[in-house]
Fold this protein.
Amino acid sequence: MDKLMYEKLNMKILKEKKSVFVSTKDALRDVTPIEWDEHVIDGKKEVTLIGKNN
Amino acid sequence: MCDVGDIILIDKYRQNEINLSRHSFVVISDEAGEIRGLDYNIVCNVLSSFKDEKQRARKLNYPGNFEILHYDTSVKNGNTKDGFIKAEQFFYFNKDKLDYSIIGKISPEAFNRLIRFIESLEIDIEHIIDNL
């Protein structure tokens, strides 16, 4: 069975859509950060790297 | 080096009074490019959590928000809470200027649904380039 691959976002499609430029501050205004366990945030040795080379 | 689909935390990065290190991002593209004369090599969407069920219903009513269930991601020591991706917002970064940690990955199934969701969006796309 073939492994499912990550599809590529066609960046040209984004450019064809109506776009605006906003600041980071405005973009994050309504974002509630995910509260990760401290072992995720502080324990860099605990981080799992699940890249294609691993 | 990060790949498409990775969930990253940006370390010790402040843009004005905004502390980006509190936020989680999904790498949506790792192709280098240029926007308004500025070089970038990753493009990300930000992840957000729900404060409560009432907010969940309200947030998911917004056409740019893409629900992400906790089993759509793989994060070691991660939580079991669901969240959403602000799919109409694209953060452009130059990873050569960033310290970041890869904390996990979104599943290919969920990522590919996200790509189709983005392509079908009929609202304004927001580009965030002030971190370049």
Q: What stands out?
A: The radius of gyration of chain A is 18 Å.
